[in-house]
Amino acid sequence: MVSAPVPNDTTFHPSTFILLGIPGMRDQHIWAAIPFCFMYILALVGNGTILYIITKERTLHKPMYLFLCLLSITDLVLCSTTLPKMLTIFWLKSHIISYQGCLTQMFFVHTIFATESAVLLAMAFDRYVAICRPLHYASILNAVVIGKIGLACVVRGLLFVFPFVILIERLPFCGHHIIPHTYCEHMGIAKLACASIRPNTIYGLTVALSVTGMDVVLIATSYGLILRAVLRLPSKDAQFRAFSTCGAHICVILVFYVPAFFSFFAHRFGQQIPPHVHIVLANLYLLMPPVLNPLVYGINTKQIRLRIFDFFMGRR
């Protein structure tokens, strides 16, 4: 096989990349950082509060709330992989990121996103067991099983995302090392290469379809089975109570997948959309779930709502 010629100014491992921020809005970076910073603080406080309340309150040591703990942990890591660097770009004009630092950020962004998708699938399975097999709920989803499910969520993300690093490492890079983004992501880095990135494109689409796409299909299947079971309940009151236990999770699913898929399809098919809109969307789909998930569960889940009220009122 004949390899493509590589320009003389190519280096396989550039020492640094430059994160441009939001193209076309560099003059507004200082002001644009304010709402992002506020949302980041909300995410830290909200998810931190959820974790504190569930770990301290023994009556909440149940499968549904343990999965919520996993969701809060992934949310905290997800927003913390991108927001601190973004804020230093906006406020301190610290645009430079090392090559290894860029790959590390890329790895964590994609791994945690895949992990959170798996956690949402596990939460859908939790609701399925709770409604369709209530008598076996405690025995099926005991602490050991939940621990194994959590580990499987993380391992799956690691296994699917690690090839991204290998695919980037094999690429030669030209003199242009500017990434028009606020954080490092797989295709943003790959597009700087001087060689063909077809394997990166194919594998990226494969992961998106086989991981996130399959999770959505399985979640929809779970809720289809839940809906069938609920509609067979004898009374309207029983149906309402069954549906109410799923309300918060359905909201969280929509908050996670709708912005992600909108950004995904806009990036690939919305050539007429300005670049700064793409970048803002790419940041929002990583930030909105960590911000809104604690609010959704705090409002829609009575047990958590009461504990949060007691916590801020100083009651123990």
> Structural class of the secondary structure composition?
mainly alpha
Shape: globular
Strand-and-helix sequence, N→C? EHHHEHHHEHHHHH
How many helical stretches? 11
| Low-confidence region ranges | 1-8
State the end-to-end CA separation: 70 Å
Proportion of β residues? under 5%
The overall strand count is 3
The value of Rg in angstroms is: 22 Å
Report the sheet with the most strands, covering strand number, pairing sense and barrel closure.
3 strands, mixed
Mean pLDDT, to the nearest integer, reads: 87
> Order of strands in the sheet with the most strands?
2-1-3
> What is the helical fraction, as a range of percent?
over 70%
Write up this protein.
By secondary structure, the protein is mainly alpha-helical. It is built from eleven helices and three strands. It has a three-stranded mixed β-sheet with strand order 2-1-3. Helix 1 (29-56) runs antiparallel to helix 3, helix 1 packs parallel to helix 10 and helix 1 (29-56) packs across helix 11 (302-312). The radius of gyration is 22 Å and the shape is globular. Residues 1-8 have low confidence and may be disordered.
